[in-house]
Design goal:
Shape: elongated
CATH architecture of the largest domain: Orthogonal Bundle
Oligomer: single chain
Largest sheet: 5 strands, antiparallel
Order of helices and strands: HHHHHHEEEEEEE
Number of helices: 6
Strand content: 15-25%
Structural class: alpha+beta
Strand order of the largest sheet: 6-5-3-2-7
CATH superfamily of the largest domain: Homeodomain-like
Length: 220
DNA sequence: AATCCATCCAACCGCGGCAGG
DNA sequence: GCCTGCCGCGGTTGGATGGAT
């Protein structure tokens, strides 16, 4: 039923040429984003709309930041991934100038590997604490999210060598099998009373996690 | 210099959600 | 309510590149 994306019958991957890029840039600058299905014909491109959209969003858009990820960005990705999972677009939305594809690739090629070397399961990673703020409507609330949902869980499901713990950074991280319930502490509250917040209940939650230097482990 | 292999990342694919008719 | 088309997302692929042998 679906139209095949590629115009080419052999449907092979094909890199974008300079001319194609320029055509796409010119067209979008002139007419704006959107109407992707009709764009290729209008712009004189032998590509499908999806391909044009992807090229624009991931590569040609003027505000895209290219180059290596900084330590702060990497740290933020790890924290956000611990909280959100593989929601790359959401994670990328918190990293100005970065695209979901770029974040995803960086995770798979760098961070994943790094975490595995540290003896952690990157698919099941939880930071203990994430400090940031949430917006509910226009009201900003400063919070700390405590990810330690199951502190008594026995650590027998991965017999990682104990010397992994020699890596101080590894002590930041822990595995658990819990899902999306998080203990959220209202930082501004003098009582420090914890309230349970299911993040799934707030699909439109504007989660503004700002990076903080947060030494929640013995990393010195 | 040639070949092999691992890694990176741009590009593609398939699917689900949503809106409009 | 159903159908169709568009949009956006996450997973996957494969070409390019660089290091090792």
């Amino acid at each position: 039923m679906r139209r095949p994306c590629s115009e080419k019958p052999d449907s092979q991957k094909r890199s974008w040429s300079r001319e194609e890029d320029q055509k796409l840039i010119d067209y979008v600058q002139k007419h704006g984003e959107g109407c992707w299905p009709s764009l290729p014909q209008a712009a004189g491109l032998r590509r499908c709309g999806k391909s044009c959209r992807l090229r624009w969003l991931n590569y040609l858009k003027p505000d895209i930041k290219r180059g290596d990820f900084g330590e702060d960005e990497e740290d933020l990705i790890i924290r956000l991934h611990a909280l959100l999972g593989n929601r790359w677009s959401l994670i990328a939305g918190r990293l100005p100038g970065r695209t979901d594809n770029e974040v995803k690739n960086y995770w798979n090629s760098h961070i994943r590997k790094k975490l595995i070397q540290m003896g952690h399961d990157p698919n099941n990673l939880r930071h203990r604490l994430i400090k940031g703020s949430i917006f509910i409507g226009t009201t900003a609330k400063s919070i700390i999210i405590d990810e330690e949902a199951n502190p008594h869980k026995e650590d027998d499901d991965d017999d990682e060598p104990s010397n992994n713990n020699n890596n101080p950074a590894a002590k930041n991280l822990q595995n658990d099998d819990d899902d999306d319930d998080h203990q959220v502490f209202d930082e501004s509250s003098s009582t420090s009373k914890a309230t349970k917040l299911n993040l799934n209940a707030f699909p439109d939650l504007n989660l503004d996690l700002t990076l903080t230097t947060y030494h929640h482990c013995s990393d010195h």
